[in-house]
Amino acid sequence: MTDPTPAETQPEPAANLQWGGRFAAGPAAVMQRINASIGFDRRLWRQDITASRAHAAMLAARGIIGAEDAAAIADGLGAIAAEIESGTFVFSEALEDIHMNVEARLAERIGEAGKRLHTARSRNDQVATDFRLWVREAIDGLDAQLAGLMRALAARAAEHAADPMPGFTHLQTAQPVTFGHHLLAYVEMLSRDRGRLADARGRLNECPLGAAALAGTSFPIDREATAAALGFARPMANSIDAVSDRDFALEFLAAGAISAMHLSRLAEEIVIWCSAPYRFVTLSDAFTTGSSIMPQKRNPDAAELVRAKTGRMAGALVGLLTVMKGLPLAYAKDMQEDKEPVFDAADAWSLALAAMAGMVRDLRPDAARLAAFAGAGFATATDLADFLVRELKLPFRTAHHVTGRLVARAEARGVDLAALSLAEMQAEEPRLTEAVYSVLSVAASIASRTSFGGTAPANVAAQAARWLARLA
Ligand code: ARG
Predict the structure, then answer these.
(1) End-to-end Cα spacing for the chain
(2) Whether 439 contacts 380, CB under 8 Å
(3) Would you place residue 1 in the very low, low, confident or very high pLDDT band (cuts 50, 70, 90)?
C-alpha cells in the first residue's frame, strides 16, 4: 500500500451517481479507495442478482412497480449476469460495491425501470441478504466436502479395522488400538463439525430483505414472499437486527476454526507418521514434495499446509469478532470488513478438506511396523493390571502397583513383560499363573476392548460399516 499523494487527497470532480443529488463534488481518491468493496464483494454477484430478482418480482406482485418494469428488470439482470459470467462486465471502483455496480449497469441497460429496483430496499438489507445467501451456499458446499472426507476416513477404517497400532497419550505409548479405530475418531469429530454447520445454517436461514435501511419501509412489501423465493425459512422479525448483526458469519467462522483445528491434528499426525523415526505411513509422490538440496527428502507439505490453515481460519474469527465488538446499532461501514475473512476462511477450509481427503485416500500404513510398535513400550501393562483385578480380585490400585513393579523389572532387564519368567512374575504376586501370558499380546489386548466405543476389531468394523452406510 502506498501513501496518498497530495493530488489524491483532492476531491474528484464528478459526484456519485447514486447520491449525487446531495453531493456537489466526488470523493477524494483515497476516500474512494478505502470506501470501495468491489475488489472483494464482486464474489456476491450471483446472490445480488438473485435477491434483486426476488425483490423486483415482489414489488410487482404488490403493485409497487409495474409488471412491465419488473419484466424489464428481470431481463436486464439476466443480461448483467451473462456479462459478469463471460467476463465482459466492467466493475467500477467509483461505484463502490457489487450492489451499486449491478444497479448502475441496470439503469444503463434498461433506463427508468432500472431506477425503480431500489424501491423499498437499502444496501443495508441488500448486503445482509446477499451475504447470508453466500454463506448458506458455502455451508452446503463445505458440508458435502466434510461428508466426503468422512467417507474416505471410514473406508480406510474399514480396511484397517483389525490392524493394530500404538495408541498414545502424551505422545507416549499408552495401549494398543487399531488403525481403523484411530481414523474413526476423526470421523466423529468431523461429524460434529457438520453438526455445527447445520446449526449455524438453521439460525442463518432468515431473510433480512425488506428491513430496508433499518426501520422497515412504508411500502406494502411482502417479506414472506421474498423470504420464500430466496429459500429462507422466514423473514427476520426485527428490521434493526436484520441489518445489524453478523452473528451468522461469526458462527460460520467459529465452526470453521474448530474444524480447522480438527484437521490440523490429523495433519500433524500424518506429518509425524511420515517422519523417518516413525515410518508408520507413507504418502505417494502425489501428496509430497522433494527438497532442492537433499535428494533423500520426501516432505508432507500438503499436511503441513492443512495444519497451517488453522492460523488464518482462527484469525478470521478473531478478526471479525473484533470488528463487530462494540458497534452501535444499526449498520456501520465497519461491517464491510466482514466479507474478506469469511471468503478467505471458506476458501482455506475447502482447500484443506480437499487436500486432506486426497491424503487419506493416498496414505499407505505400514501394518507390520505399526503392529510391532503397538506392543512396544509395555503397551499391554494395563491388560496385566486388569488381569490381576479380574482373576485374583486385587483392588485396581494394588494391581496397578504390582504391575508397575513388574514393568520396572522388565525395564531393568531390557525385555518386554512377556519375557519375564513366571518365577519373576510370582516374586511380585505369588498367585500368578501361566494364564497371565495370554493377556500380554497385542492381539489379546485389542480384542478384549469390547466396551461400547472401544477398539476391539469387531467394534471398529461395525462402526466403520455404520458410518459408511450413513454416509452413502
Ligand atoms: N458495501 C457495503 C457493505 O459491504 C454495502 C452496504 C453499504 N451501506 C451503506 N449504508 N453504506 O457493507
Answers:
(1) 50
(2) yes
(3) very low
Q: Choose the residue to mutate in 336, 337, 338, 339 for probing ligand 1, maximizing ligand atoms within 8 Å of C-beta.
A: 336
The conformation of residue 451, written as its DSSP 8-state character, comes to S
What distances in angstroms separate CA 249 from CA 35, 233, 323, one per listed residue? Answer: 21, 18, 12
* Ligand 1 mean position, distance from CA 250 (Å): 18
Q: CA dist 107 to 49, 55, 210, 329, Å?
A: 14, 16, 21, 32
Given 55, 181, 239, 291, the catalytic residue = 291
- What is the rounded distance in angstroms from the CA atom of residue 165 to the CA atom of residue 280? 9
283 Cα–ligand 1 center, Å:
47
List the grid coordinates of 102: 449491478
One of 52, 99, 118, 170 is an active-site residue; which one? 170
Q: How far is the CA of 39 from the centre of ligand 1 (A)?
A: 14
For 334-366, what is each residue's pLDDT tens digit? 999 999 999 999 999 999 999 999 999 999 999
Q: Which residues pair with 166 in a beta bridge?
A: 176
Distance 315 CA to ligand 1 centre (A): 23
3-state secondary structure of 164: strand
**Burial zone of 306 (CB within 10 Å; 0-12 exposed, 13-18 middle, 19+ buried):** buried
Q: Ligand 1: residues whose CB is within 6 Å?
A: 37, 41, 97, 123-124, 127, 331, 333, 335-336
Least confident of 247-256, 331-340, 434-443: 434-443
Burial 28-58 (b: 16+ CB within 10 A, else e): bbeebeebbbbebbbbbbbbbbbbbbbbbbb
CA–CA gap between residue 439 and residue 290 (Å, rounded): 44
Distance 35 CA to ligand 1 centre (A): 9
How many whole angstroms separate alpha carbon 282 and alpha carbon 409?
A: 36
Ligand 1 atom, smallest distance to 37 CA: 1
- Which residue's CA is the nearest one to ligand 1's atom 12? 336
Provide CB contacts within 8 A for 15, sequence distance 6+: 23, 24, 25, 26
Q: Indicate the residue type of 80.
A: I
182 is catalytic: no
| pTM of the complete model beyond 0.85 | yes
Alpha carbons within 13 A on the beta-carbon side of 429:
25
Q: 3-state DSSP call for residue 370?
A: helix
Question: Would you say residue 255 has pLDDT above 60?
Answer: yes
* 170 belongs to the catalytic site: yes
- How many Cα atoms occupy the beta-carbon half-sphere of 134 within 13 Å? 24
